[in-house]
Amino acid sequence: MKNNQRKRPRYPVKIDGMVITPEASIPILATEISVDGIRIQSSKPISSGTNISISLQFEEEIWLYGTVIWALDSGSESQRIYQIGIETYAIGIPEIKAISFPEKAELFEEILSRLQKMGQQEKNSSLQEGL
Known about the structure:
The protein is of the alpha+beta class.
């Protein structure tokens, strides 16, 4: 049986963003998020141990700061796609930056609530477009 080392639940998302490393800025797609980490897809590899900043775009910009824990090449020869797991140590939105766990948990719950509302609005607008 596979050992799942996650401390907290992750939630599926699809949010475009940008990773800033010491060497480059790389467009990414966030695919899972939790209070302690995020999983992203990138066309460029990022080495384990790299400290990064992530900017995610939705209602307002979300910043995550963390360290790459693992990276897997899941693409083909013609199109490289890297799955990257990042442990986050801080989360921020324009008016708040959270570093300690209680602050991060509270801010994450607010962000998750906004994501869920946004997802529900997208479902409703898709249903209305189909009518």
